[in-house]
Design a protein that fits this description.
Elements (H helix, E strand, L loop, with lengths): L2 E6 L4 H4 L2 H9 L3 E8 L13 H18 L4 E7 L9 H15 L3 E5 L9 H16 L7 H5 L9 E6 L17 E4 L1 H13 L8 H12 L2 E9 L19
Parallel strand pairs: 1-2, 1-4, 2-3, 4-5
Antiparallel strand pairs: 5-7, 6-7
Helix pairs in contact: 2-7, 3-7, 4-5
The protein binds zinc ion.
């Protein structure tokens, strides 16, 4: 079975940034997983939550509902501090993701680029940085050897992608997005479902209109990616399938 792992920063990223792709590849028989680094407690929109703990519980439940709706097989919210991923211990974050990669054993990994995705969020950039290093190190027996001694085997995923776009959002900090090397047509139906998944994050309701506008006008029914690295070296070509050239192993 082919497997896809998506590494995000906040509950709702899985829907807003990767939702159509997650739906599409599940339909094609790929097992999908999402690992989210924070519970999103720095959010300005807090629903009925009075404390960070209450907000974390709400957002974890919304994340679970959204992942179920997107047919994600394995999903998890880790405990790193929201809005502080740039001050998180690098070795600990990469170690945690390296272990997940050796457990889940994905063929393809999706995450954010160093621009922080469309919104330029610093947490997105950091999630992408940790995931990028983990993508490389999960396959090296000399990095984080302890889990290997405990029975986990090294794992080399075949492709790593950053989500990107061929436009930038106005009224945001300046970003330099990774080039578009893959365009995934998700179709109108999946585009609608992705919006529905996002709206399951009810604490974030005040964002719904803005996100709808951003996604609808800029991306429409296409999700764009940049191929960052591949296990089997090769030349760039524009793709319309993230599993192009991927073999089951
Ligand atoms: Zn986010």
């Amino acid at each position: 079975m082919l497997r896809l792992l998506c590494v995000t920063a906040h509950p709702d990223d899985e829907a807003g940034a990767f939702g159509g792709t997650l739906l599409l590849y599940h339909e094609r028989g790929v097992e999908t997983s999402v690992v989210c680094l924070t519970a999103g407690t720095a959010a300005r929109n807090r629903g009925s939550a009075r404390t960070d703990d209450e907000l974390a519980a709400l957002r974890r439940a919304e994340f679970a509902a959204s992942c179920k709706f997107l047919n994600v097989s394995h999903y998890e919210v880790l405990d790193f501090a929201d809005s502080r991923l740039d001050r998180t211990d690098f070795y600990q974050a990469v170690g945690t993701l390296t272990r997940r990669m050796r457990q889940i054993r994905p063929h393809v990994v999706l995450t954010f680029g160093m621009d922080g995705g469309l919104t330029g969020h610093v947490d997105h950039a950091m999630a992408g940085m940790f995931a990028t290093v983990a993508f490389e190190w999960a396959g090296r027996p000399d990095r984080f050897p302890e889990p290997i001694e405990q029975g986990l085997q090294p794992h080399r995923a075949q492709k790593l992608y950053y989500m990107t776009a061929d436009f930038v959002l106005p009224d945001r900090q300046p970003i330099a997005p990774p080039t578009v090397t893959a365009r995934i047509e998700i179709g109108k139906e999946r585009f609608e479902k992705k919006g529905e998944a996002f709206r399951l994050h009810t604490t974030q309701k005040p964002l719904f209109e803005r996100v709808k506008k951003n996604l609808g006008q800029g991306l429409g029914t296409v999700e764009m990616y940049h191929l960052v690295a591949r296990r089997d070296p090769g030349e760039d070509q524009v793709e319309n399938d993230l599993f192009e050239g991927v073999v089951e192993d």
